[in-house]
């Protein structure tokens, strides 16, 4: 049983083998459900010329945004990039290649990669710059463009709970790109809030089976709020 234990005790071991020029698929949506410690370890290692596939690139100074500070990312495949001034600057200066992809298409490209499907047809993006140069076929008289799937060298994933076998449960909005990312890379590293005893997770609860996971590490999370909005209560009638 000990040979199946995937728990590592430090971040250096968690990201062992990461090299310049690799492709990383990162889970998360905005700042929700991001593997904060694994991102910090990539920054610490100084790994460069990375292609990163993620819904977005964090914000200035947090999340994947910290990897832009030393220009560790050479290409970003994302669906939304509007919260990061440094990202914008590097894009406009020609220092960062960006492949914008519709969000649903991006999710399906990752899911298909994890399922061993090399490409699929979708109507999303047809007739726009997204579809330029891509194969087009008609299905029921509607045009669809061919999108290739995505796989990575590493997937960095944030889960709520996992056991030592790597069986994972996600919580609430962290069920965004994390389960997809976990299936689509050669090496999948999961950062979790809690590591539980083997056998304590009901099979019906497990979102990512341990067969997809190579390493598990217990992390601590700041869980920063991307944009805090507080609703102002309207004054009662007769008050100033």
Overall description:
The strands form 2 sheets. Strands 1, 2, 3, 4, 8, 9, 10 and 11 form an 8-stranded mixed β-sheet that branches. Strands 5-7-6 form a 3-stranded antiparallel β-sheet. Helix 2 links the parallel strand 1 and strand 2. It has a single domain, classed as Glutaconate Coenzyme A-transferase (3-Layer(aba) Sandwich). The chain is 17% helix and 26% strand. The chain has 240 residues and is α/β, with parallel strands linked by helices.
Briefly characterize the structure.
Keywords: Transferase. Belongs to the 3-oxoacid CoA-transferase subunit A family. This protein is α/β, with parallel strands linked by helices and 240 residues long.
Task: Tag the structure with descriptive keywords.
Glutaconate Coenzyme A-transferase, globular, Dehydrocarnitine CoA transferase subunit A, 3-oxoacid_CoA-transf_A, three-stranded antiparallel beta sheet, 11 strands, CoA_transf_BS, 240 residues, alpha/beta, CoA-transferase activity, transferase, single chain, 26% strand, 5 helices
């Amino acid at each position: 049983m000990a040979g199946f234990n995937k728990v590592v005790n430090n971040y250096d071991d968690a990201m062992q083998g990461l090299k310049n020029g690799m492709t990383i698929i990162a889970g998360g949506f905005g700042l929700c459900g991001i593997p904060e410690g694994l991102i910090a370890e990539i920054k610490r290692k100084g790994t460069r010329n990375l292609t990163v596939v993620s819904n977005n690139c964090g914000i200035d100074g947090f999340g994947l945004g910290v990897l832009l500070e030393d220009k560790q990312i050479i290409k970003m495949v994302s669906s939304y990039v509007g919260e990061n001034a440094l990202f914008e600057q590097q894009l406009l200066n020609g220092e960062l290649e960006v492949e914008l992809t519709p969000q649903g298409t991006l999710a399906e490209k990752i899911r298909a990669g994890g399922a061993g499907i090399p490409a699929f047809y979708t109507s999303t993006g047809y007739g726009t710059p997204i579809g330029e140069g891509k194969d087009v076929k008609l299905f029921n008289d509607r045009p669809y463009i061919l999108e290739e799937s995505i796989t990575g060298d590493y997937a960095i994933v944030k889960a709520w709970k996992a056991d030592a076998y790597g069986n994972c449960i996600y919580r609430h909005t962290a069920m965004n790109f994390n389960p997809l990312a976990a299936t689509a890379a050669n090496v999948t590293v999961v950062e979790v809030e809690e590591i539980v005893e083997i056998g304590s997770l009901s099979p019906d609860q497990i979102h990512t089976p341990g067969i997809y996971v190579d390493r598990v590490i217990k992390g601590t999370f700041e869980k920063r709020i991307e944009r805090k909005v507080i609703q102002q209560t309207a004054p009662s009638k007769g008050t100033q």
